[in-house]
TrEMBL record:
Domain Fibronectin type III-like stretches: 653-723
Classification via SMART domains: Fn3_like (SM01217)
InterPro entries: Cellulose_deg_GH3, Fn3-like, GH, Glyco_hydro_3_AS, Glyco_hydro_3_C, Glyco_hydro_3_C_sf, Glyco_hydro_3_N, Glyco_hydro_3_N_sf
Statement: the UniProt record of this protein carries the keyword NAD: no
GO molecular function, one term: hydrolase activity
Keyword annotations of the record: Carbohydrate metabolism, Glycosidase, Hydrolase, Signal
Name of the molecule in the record: Glycoside hydrolase family 3 C-terminal domain-containing protein
Secretion signal, residue range per the UniProt entry: 1-31
Family from the record: Belongs to the glycosyl hydrolase 3 family.
Gene3D superfamilies on file: Glycoside hydrolase family 3 C-terminal domain (3.40.50.1700), Glycoside hydrolase, family 3, N-terminal domain (3.20.20.300), Immunoglobulins (2.60.40.10)
Organism: Mucilaginibacter pankratovii
Length: 735
């Protein structure tokens, strides 16, 4: 007994020592942080006090396409910005848009935003952030222009592929992970585009109208999380207007929400050429003007005109000082005054390429697999037909500002030949041809892209008949998924539907792989082909990843980050005739019913729902319970359940927790995502998972009281693996 007591005492002492050590080091870290902050404040104050007005203003506008001049005399370095968000863009000439032709700027290219979101795995966003940070530093960049986190409001928005999701919660989780990781490498992010840049049509003139509730519940949360949880150092104002004022000079957005409510202390920059005035923009909180076409940089709104505005007393000097302070603060945070301790960066390492591969592999969403024709046992077949332009198309180098000069890009055809070509005959036929062309700012190049090319189809049918299995790589390309314009419809271009139908008739063992970054109409093929895999733009490792998913080396675990409608007019903005707006105004009349919130509330059956994706194994959810039945408004719900892999392959399930408020004083979406987890399981393995939801997160935004409100009463927690496949529910009450 005595020995036991002695042992217990020793254990307690050790625990106490460990705890004291943790507290002491945490205390020391806090004290160190305060010291650093004070040092920074003092340094910033001192630098500002030594600067002339001209020098201050030189920090507030670019002096070339992507650089801002420093103040040499005071040791303030030049600021180097580069496009992201899924790779560090190749070097562009200082004074025109041509590429500089460097031989050292080929980079790692990740799958773009929708693909990253489709992994539902924030750990991959962390990896991407770290890699981008390292490559940005290697290229001596200080700011990487990403992530792009606008809500996917319409299937047609040209930039959907760069953004992440129709759901603000999923966006928040991925964005925060990405931002924290990237900034840990001493590079600032620029979260874009603040705010409501949800279409490319008239993006630089359209005025977005939305309710305060839609702003608070749908369009703002991602940005809020990016700033308050992610600690984003810079934010990029959108091109469009918001409630009558340009986003770059919007008092409500920039002073009231961004600075005051979110406590943003970083730099608010314009999108390229998105400044419109000097005085108003200066007074409403813009810090940095980037990218106008005026050749003389001194003529920019935040150059000589700003100096004059200060001299005339229209802009107080204190306002200029505030902006300079913001710029210097970001420079300090990214260690620009401490180069010897700054991340040195690395480029194109095998780890970087592995990270790009992992994202692509985990992003793939298996939409349909009738008769389990996937995975393909390549060791049991003699021949495979590979059909489609996207089997050989390299995608990394297009899309406009997010285009990447990838070090390499493995296409699906290359990967399949390389992995299986020794034993399997690979029969390639183009099947359809790219008939569109890209012309910046105009979607005219998309028209005339619906021609069915029977000659190519006949060739495809021939190889399909000669092969054991057929894989068609179709979908879109960056003539459609691109910055600067929106698509005209949701159809698969170039007569692909006809091709897919004819090929499947010739060989029923046909798998369709969709390469695209935004929803396309699949209604014409779901009943014609047994298997559909959505592989996104997969970055530089696209081919390797998709080949491994097709062969079963990788078990698909991606889930849709957006709803795929049967037809465009099911989709909220289009059902209400509010895309892309009229007379340069767009009214977000669907309000908070964006994406699945609309489909589920209006009971419209989509083609494939938000959060959906199959696996080569099976999963079962059981034992869903909460720690209490009744919660206080400041409480936290601990929801517990078990997930079992019921099949014979290793795999991952994304368990999604939605909440609904059946009785409410306002219309609430049928359900809203409040938590999720990707659970990796060996065959037969079971894991217990706990998800937490703050009761305050069940609130809606009360427009009359201008505050968040949780109404007492019943809420239903719904657990499932898509917004439409709920397998367990638990009711709780809030006091
Ligand atoms: C885009 C931004 C981009 C910038 C610089 C703009 O046209 O909207 O996302 O970062 O150009 O290339």
């Amino acid at each position: 007994m005595n020995v036991l007591i002695l042992k217990l005492k020793i254990m307690m002492k050790t625990c106490f020592q460990i705890l004291s050590f943790i507290l002491l080091t945490a205390g020391m870290a806090n004290a160190q942080q305060t010291l650093n902050d004070n040092y920074q404040k003092e340094k910033i104050r001192s630098l500002i006090s030594q600067m002339t007005l001209q020098e201050k203003v030189s920090l507030l506008h670019a002096n070339s396409k992507f650089y801002v001049s420093g103040v040499k005399r005071l040791g303030i370095p030049e600021w180097a910005l580069s496009d992201g968000p899924h790779g560090v863009r190749a070097e562009i000439n200082r004074h025109d848009w041509a590429y500089a032709g460097w031989t050292t700027d080929s980079a790692t290219c990740f799958p773009p935003g929708t693909a990253l979101a489709a992994t539902w795995n924030p750990a991959l966003a962390v990896k991407q952030g770290l890699v981008l940070g390292e490559e940005a530093r290697f290229r001596k960049k200080d700011v990487l222009l990403g992530p792009g986190i606008n809500i996917i409001r319409s299937p047609l928005c040209g930039r959907n592929f760069e953004y992440m999701s129709e759901d603000p919660f999923l966006i928040s989780k991925m964005a925060v992970a990405y931002i924290k990781a990237l900034q840990s490498k001493d590079v600032a992010v620029s979260v874009k585009h603040w705010i409501a840049n949800n279409q490319e049509t008239h993006r630089d003139s359209v005025d977005v109208q939305m309710s305060e509730r839609a702003l608070r519940e749908i369009y703002l949360p991602g940005f809020k999380a990016a700033v308050t949880e992610g600690g984003a150092y810079t934010v990029m104002a959108a091109y469009n207007k918001f409630r009558g004022d340009w986003c770059s000079e919007n008092e409500y957005l920039n002073r009231q929400i961004l600075r005051k409510e979110l406590g943003f202390k970083g730099v608010l920059m314009t999108d390229w050429a998105a400044a419109h005035t000097t005085v108003k923009a200066a007074l409403t909180g813009l810090d940095l003007e980037m990218g106008t076409d005026k050749k003389d940089y001194n003529e920019w709104y935040f150059a000589d005109p700003l100096i004059k505005a200060v001299e005339r007393g229209e802009v107080p000097l204190s306002v200029v000082d505030e902006k300079v302070g913001n710029v210097l603060r970001v420079m300090f945070k990214t260690k620009m005054f401490d180069e010897s301790n700054r991340e040195k960066g690395k480029m194109n390492t095998p780890e970087h390429q592995k990270a790009a591969y992992n994202s692509a592999a985990e992003a793939a969403v298996l939409l349909q697999n009738k008769g389990n024709i996937l995975p393909i046992s390549f060791n049991k077949i003699k021949s495979v037909a590979i059909i489609g332009d996207n089997a050989t198309r390299k995608q990394c180098g297009a899309g406009l500002s997010s285009e990447i000069k990838a070090l390499y890009e493995i296409t699906p055809l290359e990967a399949i030949k390389q992995k299986f070509g020794a034993n399997v005959k690979v029969n390639f036929a183009r099947g359809y041809e790219k008939q569109s062309t890209f012309k910046e700012g105009s979607n005219r190049g998309q028209s005339n892209s619906d021609n069915v090319d029977w000659k190519l189809i006949q060739e495809a049918v021939k190889v399909a008949k000669e092969s054991d299995v057929v894989i068609i790589f179709g979908g879109l390309n960056h003539d459609f998924d691109t910055e600067s314009f929106d698509r005209q419809n949701m159809d698969l271009p170039y007569g692909q539907e006809v091709l897919m139908r004819e090929v499947a008739k010739a060989n029923p063992k046909t798998v369709v792989v969709i390469v695209a970054g935004s929803p396309v109409k699949l209604a014409g093929i779901v009943n014609q082909v047994p298997a559909i895999l959505w592989s996104w733009y997969g970055g530089m490792e696209a081919g390797n990843a998709v080949a491994d998913v097709l062969s079963g080396k990788v078990n698909p675990s991606g889930k849709l980050p957006f709803t795929i409608p049967v037809a465009l007019d099911q989709s909220p903005a289009h059902a209400l005739g509010n895309f892309p707006g009229k007379d340069l105004k767009v009214n977000y009349e669907e309000d908070v019913l964006v994406g699945y919130r609309w489909f589920d509330t209006k009971k419209i059956q989509p083609q494939f729902p938000f959060g959906y994706g199959l696996s080569y194994t099976g999963f079962a959810l059981s034992g869903f319970s909460t720690d209490k039945n009744i919660y206080e408004k400041d409480g936290i719900i601990h929801a517990k359940f078990a997930v079992k892999n019921t099949g014979r392959r290793y795999g991952a399930e994304v368990v999604q927790l939605y909440v609904s408020d059946p009785v409410s004083s306002v219309l609430r979406p049928e359900k809203e995502l409040k938590a999720f987890e990707k659970v990796f399981l060996q065959p037969g393995e079971t894991k217990t998972v706990e998800l937490q939801v703050k009761v305050s997160d069940l609130a809606f935004y009360d427009e009359t009281k201008k505050t968040w409100k949780v109404e007492a009463g019943e809420f239903v927690l719904q657990l499932g693996n898509s917004s439409r496949n709920i397998s367990k529910t638990v009711k709780i009450s809030v006091k």
